[in-house]
Amino acid sequence: MDSTVQSTVPSGQPLIAARGVGVKRAQRWLIRNVDLTVHPGEIVTLIGPNGSGKSTTVRTILGLIRHDVGTIERAPGLTVGYVPQKLSIDWTMPLTARRFMTLTGRHPVAAIDAALDEVGLTAFSDRDVQVLSGGEFQRLLLARAIIGQPDLLVLDEPVQGVDATGEIALYELIAGLRHRLGCGVLLISHDLHIVMAATDTVICLNGHVCCSGSPKAVAESPEYRTLFGSRAAEALAIYHHHHDHAHLPDGTVVKSGDADDHVACTHPEHHHDHG
Asked: Do 47 and 164 have their domain in common?
């Protein structure tokens, strides 16, 4: 795999662009008025609580779910590498890391070795996946996702089951892959506290886009530094944002204050910056 790979999508043209997208099922909006754009070399992090529509949004913009309103544009010939949130494997079956790389397609040995090297697993190629740590297995999933040198890398909870130190290493790896491969990255996370410092855009979703913008480069709170350490404070950031609306049971969004009995979108997990 080349040390630097240029995206096949022309510079300035988005890999994928969703505008006003909504998905309605059983008279309820799963997502509504969602805008999301990813360009080559850009990292976009989608965060939100469980059930906020993150997976629905991603599956919709990739064309796996039909949308009811809005528009979705994908770059011609767009190729996607995907790291799923969950993967079912028969852990009793002997399966080496190298063999795992061939489960979803045939690839030359040189390409497999290059992908494993790209994620730092060269020494693990003949090791059974059953003995890999959580972080090592996530790296293996990344290797499988990038072997085709995709234009867009979609990562669904890529640090799930990984300890804090492993999270930092994976985030650093993802940021490096973005530069070396020239691909766009759409990263999905339920963690409303911590996002990658390398993220260009953070989108907070709760059925719709609650807020979006750039994350802070460095976490400043003493509690955060105590929990993750100084190195984590350099690698990760807390995203501060405001909510000015409420969510009704049917998915409708209204401005906060329009009705006293509306529950505002102020999840306890959110870290609000009340300036």
From this structure: yes
